[in-house]
Amino acid sequence: MEQREGYIIFNPNKKAKVKLMCFHHAGGSALSFIPLVRTLPKDVEAYLFELPGRGISANQKFVANFSEAMAYFLPKVIDCMDRPTVFLGHSLGGLFSYAISGSLSKKQNYIEKVIISAAKSPQTVLEYAIHPEKPFIVRSRDSVKMDIEALGGIPVDVDDSLLHSIINITGNDFHLLDTFTLDGVVKSSFPFELWLGKYDTAVHEREIYKWREEIQGEFCYRYFNGGHFFISESTEPADLLKKTLLNIMINIENKIV
Fold first, then answer.
1. Dihedral pair phi/psi, residue 220, rounded to 5°
2. Is the separation of the CB atoms in 193 and 115 below 8 Å?
């Protein structure tokens, strides 16, 4: 792995045929995606992006809102895109995958697919985005804790210090949902894929149809066993991701030939 400001390059390979851009869930970090990418082919170079305030970016201040988070990610993504690229985001990261891919007017030709995992649709998030001035105004620390518990995001026997950190990071990330905007984002025609957990109580079936309204090009959805964090509950998502990337590489080679 190689570490950069704001992201980790997993399996660095200057001759990689495809790049994978990953964006973590609320309360997560770049390392959240390690179980998903550790078995990918060596021809895939994975970029694990991370919001400030945790992990490798713990010494940085939290971003103030969703727009500031976009401004933080976009230049880094643009600098990394120089060949066929797949976007993958889980939960909050799914919204970043959608918004960033729709903001890359000069580099959209590189995008092969956008995978959105366990994320509510933009129209649903916009409906509840009341743009509070700062975190923990609309959502109290107790309500953030309850939301994390409901999603299964608090480890068993967690100590008070770690619990405080989890609530603080997640609450600041929830604030990005509360300040969500689609300014500068355009609907694009590259393929989209929606991943859902069969037992995810946070993302309901109706979100499939709402996501479909956001997509102009090819769209499909898939269910996996598990809850909101199904991507780490079995090997099925990692296996499908590997298969998807291999198929993309085959298609690229066939186009070249």
1. -145, 165
2. yes
221: CB partners within 8 A, 6+ apart: 193, 194, 195, 196, 208, 211
154 three-class SS:
coil
Q: CA-to-CA distance for 135 and 195, rounded, in angstroms?
A: 28
pLDDT tens string 165-210: 999 999 999 999 999 999 999 988 899 999 999 999 999 999 999 9
Yes or no: say if 83 and 101 are a contact pair by the CB < 8 Å rule.
no
- Which of 64, 56, 33 has its CA nearest to residue 173? 64
What distance in Å separates the CA atoms of residue 167 and residue 181, rounded to the nearest whole number? 23
Does pTM surpass 0.90? yes
User: Look-up: residue for tokens 């956001």?
Assistant: 214
Contact 176, 66 (CB under 8 A): yes
Q: How many percent of the chain have pLDDT more than 90? A: 86
| pLDDT digits 0-9 by tens, 61-74 | 999 999 999 999 99
In the chain, DSSP finds a helix count (H) and a strand count (E) of 8, 8
- 156, amino acid identity: V
Kindly provide the residue ranges of all beta strands, DSSP E only, lying in 155-240, ordered along the sequence.
192-197, 219-224
d(CA 59, CA 208): 38
Start-to-end CA distance of the chain, whole Å, equals 32
